[in-house]
Specification:
The longest helix has 30 residues, at 97-126. With 127 residues, the chain is mainly α. The protein is built from four helices and no strands. 79% of the residues lie in helices and 0% in strands. α2 packs across α3 and α3 (68-90) runs antiparallel to α4 (97-126).
Length: 127
Amino acid sequence: MYQQDWLDELGWGAIALGVLVGLLLQMAATFAVLQPSGQTIGLPAVVVVQACIGLGALVAGLRAHRAPLLNGLLAALGCALIALALTALRAPDQLSALSILFLFAACGLAGVIGGWAARIVRQRRAR
């Protein structure tokens, strides 16, 4: 008899698409909005980037066959992992334990919100 666990709930294609959407939206927002306005650092930049990650999580949650919240969360954490790797390559002196904790907490929160929104959308579509 086969036992099902949480790994069976993951849609790797949906997670990869969510990561891709989140990262592409971040790049577009950075080059189109944040850099021209001179706000690449600070609260407005954090809000815009987290909104992009949340939208990527929403996409992952909508595309996954099951567990939209889990798939959205993992897509957002994938974005955080890539952002951490790029920061370590580009500006390792800006990394601290607190900044890494903030990165994963903020991205995790955006992922939960995006996955939760995907679950609501899916429930409404099912009615």
